[in-house]
Amino acid sequence: MAHAIRFHETGGPDVLRLEQVTVGDPGPGEVRVRHEAIGLNFADTYFRTGLYPAPLPAGLGVEGAGIVEAVGAGVTHVAEGDRVTYTGSPLGAYSTERIMPADPLIRLPDGIDCETAAAMTMRGLTAAYLLRRIHPLKHGDTILLHAAAGGVGLIICQWAKLLGLTVIGTVSTEAKAELARAHGCDHTILYRREDVAERVRELTDGVGVPLVLDSIGKDTVAGSMASLRRRGLLVCFGTASGVPPLDAMQLAVHGSLFVTRPALADYIAEPAERDGLADELFGHVAAGRIAIRVNQRYALDDAVAAHRALEAGRTTGSSVLIP
Questions:
Q1: Of all helices (H) and strands (E), which one includes residue 122?
Q2: How confident is the model at residue 1 (pLDDT cuts 50, 70, 90)?
Q3: How far is CA 214 from CA 41, 50, 217, in A?
Q4: Pick from 76, 97, 224, 317: CA 20 to 30 A from residue 243's CA?
Q5: Under a CB-based contact definition with an 8 Å cutoff, are residues 96 and 3 in contact?
């Protein structure tokens, strides 16, 4: 029997249960994947709490890596025995094995193991579209990055240096500041002690930055807007502190700003675009230009503790579940 984490009602981490499940044979366009590692993402908590609705009972998790054990009719881009990774719906990655659509699967190149892949596919592709698709950044630009010591943040810090960008990163502790700086963050702001917008203005000679990458949401949106230069872009790509209220008039007050709330799914919906971003990401990782920090590992049956740590802000870098 296979095992999976499921929840029958929304709520706190305690609603998660490890259950035995039956995994059959894949149908047309489907595969059976045996997981070797599973990505743990803050967005998983949104499904568990009901912020992102899902029919109940439900599985959890949208990112994993492992081995293709069987393929259904019509599947041609992966074969039995392939090492693969994926990110995206449907829910159910928190499992030892699963049946899933074949389309999201990305074949892993040599040199990238499944644990690294599970820790970086969503985070890495997010960093890829934020830096390569959202805004025409140029060498010498300065950006503000919230949660610079998180899984996405550490990848962005490293990738930004490859692009010749200066990164100002916000963090909660000096330990996280040190970690961010070790991965290429040029300036760190301890947001619990310092005024973020004021420090950004100091570091940019009063001009502000052209781009803010904000995964926090409600608690940071005001400071993010105040940190932007005239006609700057605020990218709200996460809502760790809740959905930010946006007053359109404030965009004018702060200098005719732009704002977007992107979703990774819309930047990898087309296979060619997804594969292009993945190839660039995997190339940097395989060559050692970007290091993936797996700082927390949890057993699958310890998902409750993993979610508690995630929500309490006790994690850095990437976290994975091991089946």
A1: helix 114-132
A2: confident
A3: 16, 22, 7
A4: 317
A5: yes
Measured between alpha carbons, how far is 174 from 178 in angstroms, rounded to an integer? 6
Contact 315, 305 (CB under 8 A): no
Q: Which tokens go with 277?
A: 């971003």
CA dist 23 and 2 (Å) reads: 7
Check whether 282 has a pLDDT greater than 80. yes
In a shared domain, residues 113 and 193: no
High-pLDDT (> 70) share of the chain, %: 98
Same domain for 278 and 214, yes or no, is no
Terminal Cα distance for the chain, rounded: 13
- Do 60 and 170 share a domain, yes or no? no
Total of domains in the chain: 2
Count CB neighbours of 193 within 10 A: 8
Q: Are strands 58-59 and 2-7 parallel, antiparallel or unpaired?
A: antiparallel
Query: How far, in Å, CA of 280 to CA of 120, rounded?
Result: 13
User: Which residue reads 């700082």 in tokens?
Assistant: 295
Q: What is d(CA 150, CA 174) in angstroms, rounded to the nearest whole number?
A: 14
Amino acid at 70: A
User: What pLDDT is stored for residue 8 in this prediction?
Assistant: 97
pLDDT digits (tens, 9 = 90+) for 21-65: 999 999 999 999 999 999 998 889 999 999 889 999 999 999 999
**pTM for the model:** 0.89
Structure tokens at 198: 């004021």
Give the percent of the chain with pLDDT over 90: 81
Where residue 153 sits, what CATH number does that domain have? 3.40.50.720
Determine if residue 29 is left, alpha or beta; phi over 0 gives left, psi from -120 to 50 gives alpha, anything else beta. left
Of 107, 30, 105, the closest CA to residue 75 belongs to 30
Ordered alpha helix ranges (H), the chain? 43-49, 114-132, 151-162, 174-182, 196-203, 221-227, 248-253, 264-267, 271-286, 303-311
Helix, strand and coil content of the chain, in percent to the nearest 5, comes to 30, 30, 40
pLDDT above 80 for 240: no
pLDDT surpasses 80 at 86: yes
Mean pLDDT (the chain, rounded): 93
